[in-house]
Amino acid sequence: MKKYSRVPEQLIYKIWEEKQFTEVLKTSDGTEIEVIDPGSRNNDKAGPDFHNARIRIGNITFTGDVEIDTFHSDWRSHGHHLNQRYNKTILHITIADNQSSGYVTTQSGRHVPTLNLSKYLSQPLRQTILTEISKIGEDEIKMPCSEVADEAPIELKLKFIKELGLLRYRKKCDRFLARLKELIVLHEVMISEPKINHDFHKEIEERTFSSSDFENAEIWQQLLYEEIFEALGYSKNKDAMMKLSHAVDINFFRKMPKENFVAQAESALFFISGLVPEPNRLEDEETSEYIRNLYENWEQIKSGYDGVYFNKSHWHFFKLRPQNFPTVRIAAGARLLDRILNKNLFSRIIGAVSSIENNYKLISKLRDLLIVKGEGYWSKHFNFNKGVRTDIKYFIGLGRADETIVNIILPILTVYFEIFNKRKIAERILALYIYFSQKESNHLVDEVSEVLDITDKKLRSVYYQGMIELFRNYCIKQQCLECEIGKKVFAS
C-alpha cells in the first residue's frame, strides 16, 4: 500500500494484524483462508506490506509476504508484477473490489490468490474505508517504479528524461508541420473544414512541398490561433477549444474593424460556442448590459458565418478554478486573436528571435507578447451572471505564457526556420528550449520528479516535458521494460 493510496493505512494494517474479520475469509475464487500469523510490518518503503506471514489457504499452509492494495489493478499499475521483491508474496489483499481475475502474477510467473478484505469487515469499518477510497481522484499519479526508482543512477534518469523531452518537442514540430500542409491544401481548394467531403490526406502524402508553399502568412496565423486556443482549454476543454478554432476560420475575424475587434470577436466566439445565456435569465445589470452588447455585435457579423455551432454540453466547468472556466479562456483567446491579426504577433515573435541574442531578454520579450491582463466584464466574472470574489488580474499570466512558449511558440519557430533553411536560428531555438526554465510546475510533474528524485530539474522545460512524456507513454501504459529506468530497476 504505502504511498500509493490515501486510505487510512494504519487502520488497514491494524485490522489485518488484529484479525478484525466478521466471518471466515475466502479468496476471490472461494477458497477458505486461515491467518495463522499475519506477519511483521515492512517499515521500508519498498516491498510487500508484511513479511513472514503464515497463512493456510485451502489445505496448504504458506509462509511468505502479504501485499495490501486499494484496488486489484494496483498490482500491475504499481509495478509489483515486475518487481522481484514481490516474488515471495503468498496473498494479495484488496480493499475495493475492481478485479478481473482471482489472482495476480509475480515477476517469477507464480499466481498469487487475491482476498477482497472489505467483504469481511464490520459495517462501520467498511463504510469508513470505502468513503476514503471514493475520494481518490481519477488523475492520481501512479508510477510503477515508485518504490524502486532510487535504485537507478541519477545520471541515467536525467539522460533518459532529457531524451524524452527532446522527443516530445520533435513530435510537436512534426504535428505542426503536418497541420501546415493541411492548411495549405485547404487554402488552395478554398474550403472550410466542416464542409470537407474529399480525402485530401492522400494528396498531402503524395505531394512534395517546397518552402514557397509556406510563404502565405495566413496559414501561420491560423496555426498559431488553433494551437493557442487548444492550449487555453487546459485538459478539460482542449478538444472543445480546438474544434472551435477549426470551425471558425481566422479569416472570419479579418473582416472585423480594429477599433471594435475584441468586442466583436468575443461576441462571435461566445455565440458560436453556445455559451451565451437567454437574456431573460439574467440578474445583475452589468451582465445584462454585456449580453446586450454581445447581441448587438453578433447581429452585425453573424451573416458572414456559415459554419457549425456548439452548445453548452460541449464545455466542462466542473472542478475548474474560476479563472480556468472556458468563458474566461475564450475572452483571453479573443484578445490574442487581436494581437495575431491586428498587432502582427507572429511577425513580432519572428523579429524578436531574429534580433535578440540574449536568452534572458528574449524569453522576457516572448512572455510580454503573450501575457494578457484582465479587463472589462471578464475580469469581474468567471461565468455569465457569476461574479468573482477577487478581480482576475490576468487572463493569461506568467505560468500560462511559459506553457505557451514551450509547447507552441518554440516548436512553431523551429518548423518555420527549418522550412526556410535558417538552420542556425532553428538550432538556437532548440537550445533555448533546453535552456528555458518555467516559473510554475503542475501536479503530474511534481509527483514524477519526486519519485525520480529530480525535483531540482523539474522546471527546466526539457525535463518538464520529458517527465510528461515518460508518464503518458510509459507509466500509464505499463511499458516499464521499454523504459530505460524500468529496465534498470526491474531487471531480472
Describe it:
- It holds the Pfam family DUF2851.
- InterPro entries: DUF2851.
- The strands form three sheets. Strands 1, 2, 3, 4, 5, 6, 7 and 8 form an eight-stranded mixed sheet that branches. A two-stranded antiparallel sheet has the order 9-12. The chain has a two-stranded antiparallel sheet with strand order 10-11.
- β5, α2 (74-77) and β6 (89-96) form a beta-alpha-beta unit.
- It is globular, with a radius of gyration of 28 Å.
- It has helices spanning 9-18, 74-77, 123-134, 154-189, 201-206, 217-232, 238-247, 250-254, 261-273, 285-301, 326-342, 345-355, 359-370, 398-419, 423-435, 443-452, 461-475, 484-489; strands at 25-26, 32-37, 40-41, 50-57, 60-71, 89-96, 103-105, 111-116, 372-373, 381-383, 386-387, 394-396.
- The chain is an alpha+beta fold and 492 residues long.
